[in-house]
Amino acid sequence: MSSLSALEQYQRVTANYWAFTLTDGALRMLVVFHFHQLGYTSLEIAFLFLFYEFFGILTNLYGGWLGARFGLRLTLWLGTWLQIGALLMLIPVADSWPKWWSVAYVMAAQALSGIAKDLNKMSAKSAIKTVVNSNDGDQQLFRWVAILTGSKNALKGVGFFLGGVLLTALGFNASVGVMAAGLMLAFLVTLGLPADMGQMKRKPKVQTLFSKREGINVLSLARMFLFGARDVWFVVALPVFLETALGWRFWEVGSFMGLWVIGYGIVQGSAPALRRSWGQTRSPGVSAVQFWSALLTAIPALIAIALWRQVADPGLAIVAGLAAFGAVFAMNSSIHSYMVLAYSDSESVSLDVGFYYMANAAGRLLGTLLSGAIFLIGGLQACLWCSSLMVALAWLFSLRLPPVRAAQR
User: Residue 284 CA to chain centroid, in angstroms?
Assistant: First the structure.
């Protein structure tokens, strides 16, 4: 048995997750910029992330079952060491390799990274439900979720910036080696965690992987379209557009995207305080999910209209528009992350969270593929229109969400 308190366990999980998030954000920028430098098209770059997102779907589904059956420490350790392995795999990548071999090899490394990322995320998100006592109330749970998700996304933004800086200063190969060494140190923090953290008393059967709660199922479907709407412009289309159409340098693109995610994380972490400042003293419910998704629908459409009308400064339109998108998207994401835990119970939380983030990964996969393909066909404007359509679908599905208490019963 571990001598660590529940809070200390959660702090160690979170510290490891933060370190992992830095490497994950940096690696994404490294791959996009390095292979764009080599002359890869936006669609070819999107294919580099195909396995990253595809294996994230499978990982969230089976990772939740692993965590419930064998404990969250195992899933956390697996995620950390798979990410280290993925980074080490990328060290020998050379410009002289044939394109087909480079694509296949990097896709395989990204598959490991996708599995690793979602194992870590599922472990950290599930740990919240085991730490927060049911007597502390929903507002306490909302605050803990907001703090974790907000800080994680802020650090992912720092990772984007770090990726641009590392590529400029050290080059691709040395950068991934440095990140692997840093993540090995982060693993040491988790050595004191108990083996049974988050483990169910009765062993869950494989049939329990697919959620039977209406709230979890509907929220997961809305989440898939919500995150597809972000990644359809964010993953490939935006960095390539800023570099080719607006002439931004790598470090400038990395800095902007990093600051965007940092700001998004700050708003996400501040969601409970912002709601209180608006007089919302109760924890969010179904109406909050519907309101924020409806508001988000309009923003990418307005940015697309501004580009279509050929505004004098398209860079300013994109920066201002995406700042608004980030703030509203952060409120959506924070409330979604709370709702999935509110619909779950402590005993089977990793199963529900795994199922929910499986849908999240499916949305990222859909958005990533569409980002490369639609940008190649219609440019950033077409990606933004697609984003608006996908948010509208998320809003439509959210209309079917049941009240939290009724869903739990």
Answer: 21
Helices (H), 137-285: 138-169, 172-188, 214-234, 237-244, 250-269, 271-277
- Read off the pLDDT of each residue in 265-286 and give the average, rounded to a whole number: 82
CA distance 91 to 11: 31
Mean predicted confidence (pLDDT) in 15-35: 85
| CA–CA gap between residue 349 and residue 250 (Å, rounded) | 41
Q: How far is CA 369 from CA 19, 50, 104, 294, 382, in A?
A: 27, 7, 16, 24, 14
Q: Which of 16, 8, 7 is nearest to 133 (CA)?
A: 7
Average pLDDT value for residue range 309-322: 82
Q: Which of 93-97, 131-135, 261-265 has the lowest mean pLDDT?
A: 131-135
Contact 375, 240 (CB under 8 A): yes
CA distance 283 to 272: 8
pLDDT-based confidence at residue 407 (cuts at 50, 70, 90): very low
Rounded to whole angstroms, the Cα distance separating 409 from 407 reads 5
* Spatial CB neighbours of 202, under 8 Å, sequence gap ≥ 6: none
User: Of 242, 244, 245, which Cα lies nearest the Cα of 255?
Assistant: 242
Vertex 364: Cα angle to 219 and 49 (nearest 5): 160
H/E stretch holding 70 reads helix 50-70
344 and 216 in contact (C-beta within 8 Å)? yes
Query: Does residue 186 surpass a pLDDT of 60?
Result: yes
Q: What is the DSSP letter of 306?
A: H
Count CB neighbours of 347 within 10 A: 14
Can you tell me the distance from the alpha carbon of 4 to that of 274, in angstroms, rounded to the nearest whole number? Answer: 33
Residue type, position 101, single letter: W
SS3 193: coil
Nearest to 125 by CA among 338, 288, 358: 338
Provide the 8-state DSSP code for 1. -
pLDDT greater than 70 at residue 156: yes
- Tell me the whole-structure pTM to 2 decimals: 0.72
For residue 399 the two structure tokens come to 């209309």
Nearest to 26 by CA among 217, 230, 248, 261: 261
